[in-house]
Amino acid sequence: MAKGKPLIVALNRLFMDYAPIEQSISIDESMIPYFGRHGCKQFIRGKPIRFGFKSWVMATRLGYCLQFNLYQGRLGNDKQDCGLGESVVYNFADVLQTHFENLKFSLFLDNFFTSVKLLTTLGERRICGTGTVRVNRTGNCNLPNDQYYKKTERGSYNHKIDEANNILAVRWKDNSIVTLLSNEYRIKPLQSAARYFAKEKKKVYIPQPNVVSMYNKYMGGVNQFDNNIATYRISMRRKNGTCQSLCGCSTPQ
């Protein structure tokens, strides 16, 4: 990606210069469609865009892109003491703190990025973090397993708090069992989530921890960014050695 690096750097600089800065920011992956041959092309099953370049995106709640970087494999990880997902978050956090030294940000992440180690380090840097987490990344937190929740009602939850690092771990039963970590939000105040029960054929309200409610509210920034891009996506294809431009002319390559 060396040839495209200057363009990416220039775009990221402009994104930050004109950014409508908000406290709550989401970090997630995004796909750029591409069907040609390239070493960085990815295939992700189940995604709306299955073939293309995978990029890491940091966006506001309404879908404004603050920063993006293309995924180029694990060799692009410049922080050898942490995983790929952690290094992506650290790099984006460095950009935020460089441009806005006096502002405190809340980062919302999915389970690819979140870990106890990540939230501990973010807390030391005065950055809040909330995200879903894989069960094997919860450290020594002994929350009930999936077998326990199969016997409980929808909306039940259990939580533990690491007082030393100010990290909350919670498991909540919805359609599936959700596990979250946060160094900012807590269980209370409890919220209500509307769900439809097929057996009773009616809508009911189940208790929802506040950390889950805040995550649902602010995590969708990158998805909104994808929707914004899809509305105005430019399609250009190369065929028979010519470049089909937007005006319809064919220029030999």
UniProtKB/TrEMBL annotation:
Ranges for domain PiggyBac transposable element-derived protein: 2-238
One of the record's GO molecular function terms: sequence-specific DNA binding
Domain of life per record: Eukaryota
Pfam families attached to this UniProt entry: DDE_Tnp_1_7 (PF13843)
InterPro entries documented for this protein: PGBD, PiggyBac_TE-derived
Protein name listed in UniProt: PiggyBac transposable element-derived protein domain-containing protein
Organism, scientific name: Ignelater luminosus (Cucubano)
